[in-house]
Design a protein that fits this description.
The chain contains 2 helices and 5 strands; from the N terminus they run H-E-E-E-E-H-E. By secondary structure, it is of the alpha/beta class.
């Protein structure tokens, strides 16, 4: 579900959506689907994944069904703030593996 700020257009706001579930429940597949939809809508999209997650690919986010989408590997969540500052939509795969830089 996408919501729009219809009251105060001068104030930037956003929201976070979490896709959760058990292993092999389709979380990454759903993330890829949502991000592709945002790209088709003309939004500026960036996808991040932890550099340590090289199970299927070193750069792409890949689902168990072998669907994939280009991503930017990062070492810490702080990098996302810098690299995603101009994006409309930010996707993060396997966020539990990210740390904050010291």
């Amino acid at each position: 579900m996408f919501l729009e700020n219809t009251i105060n257009h001068s104030k930037q706001s956003g929201w976070m959506e979490v896709i959760c579930g058990s292993m092999f429940s389709g979380k990454t597949e759903e993330l890829i689907r949502r991000l592709r939809r945002a790209e088709m809508a003309g939004q500026n999209v960036e996808i991040f994944k932890p550099k340590i997650d090289t199970r299927y690919d070193e750069e792409d986010v890949v689902s168990h069904n072998q669907n994939k989408i280009r991503s930017t590997p990062v070492e810490s969540s702080n990098e996302i703030l810098l690299l995603g500052s101009t994006c409309d939509v930010i996707g993060i795969d396997e966020a539990q593996f990210l740390t904050t830089a010291l």
